[in-house]
Amino acid sequence: MKGSIIYVKGHKSSEIQSEQCLESFQKYGWDVSLVEGVTPETLDDKEWDVPCIKGGRLIGFRDKGERSYLTKKSCLTNHVRIWRKVIETNEPHAFIEQDAICISKYDHKYFDDVLILNIDYAFKLPSVLGTLSSMAGYTPFPTFIPKALPSNYPLQYYKNNAYNGHNMIPGTAAYAITPSGAKKLLKAAEEYGIDQSDFLINEHNVRLSYISPSPVKFNTKNLNLSHKL
């Protein structure tokens, strides 16, 4: 499967982890490349001039300061660029953050919309979700073919708007997306409003599926640059 590894140029830890990430994916035959991520310094706020959804997570970051908001908007822009690429090339593509590590090969191109590639590790440390007692350690039933999220999946959109109550992706460290999924996300955002990337990727907008055992895990340290950049 083809994929893009997003990293922050000039950030030493990001550059180191991105090289480790690249090596791990290439080891298992993935067709991946490094892609320089957007930062508040390089963000063109007009690149995708869509308003935030009311009451969403992204707009809430403005209360923490413009830098926090622009950092989150930069993160979302990275995803939007990949979604547009998927539509242009008309083939599935993996979005991979620099602190992901590949542990097996995978080339199943037949899945609906969005495929979670790291679900076995998404609710375990060093993931932020692994610190939440209501979710820590969650792992779904094993499935070698893409399968819809089970009824006991613990992570739902909790803000008071159209997305409320729908299952959402457990972070965006590693997922694959189809052209149909990319089109749905862009259309939904333009109709309802944008949100933080992992909040926008929810089952109001797209179908989420997973595989387990997961082909991707976290590096030993989660840089969490969407908060600390």
Q: What level of helicity do the residues show?
A: 25-40%
CATH topology: Spore Coat Polysaccharide Biosynthesis Protein SpsA, Chain A
* CATH architecture title: Alpha-Beta Complex
Give me the count of strands.
9
Beginning-to-end CA distance, first to last residue: 29 Å
CATH class category name: Alpha Beta
Any idea what the radius of gyration is?
Answer: 16 Å
Q: Order of strands across the widest beta sheet?
A: 2-1-3-7-5-8-6
Main sheet specs: 7 strands, mixed
How many structural domains in the coordinates? 1
Mean pLDDT: 94
Structural class: alpha/beta
Count of DSSP-assigned helices? 7
Percentage of β-strand residues: 15-25%
Shape: globular
Given as residue ranges, the uncertain stretches (5+ residues, pLDDT < 50) are: none
N-to-C series of helices and strands:
EHEHHEEEHEEHHEEH
Chain-wise SSE layout:
Blueprint: E1 2-7, H1 12-27, E2 31-36, H2 57-60, H3 66-89, E3 93-97, E4 100-102, E5 114-116, H4 119-122, E6 143-148, E7 174-177, H5 179-192, H6 197-200, E8 208-212, E9 216-218, H7 225-228
Describe this structure in words.
By secondary structure, this protein is of the alpha/beta class. 31% of the residues lie in helices and 18% in strands.
Keywords:
single chain, 229 residues, Spore Coat Polysaccharide Biosynthesis Protein SpsA, Chain A, two-stranded antiparallel ribbon, 7 helices, alpha/beta, 7-stranded mixed β-sheet, globular
What's the quick description here?
The chain has 229 residues and is α/β, with parallel strands linked by helices.
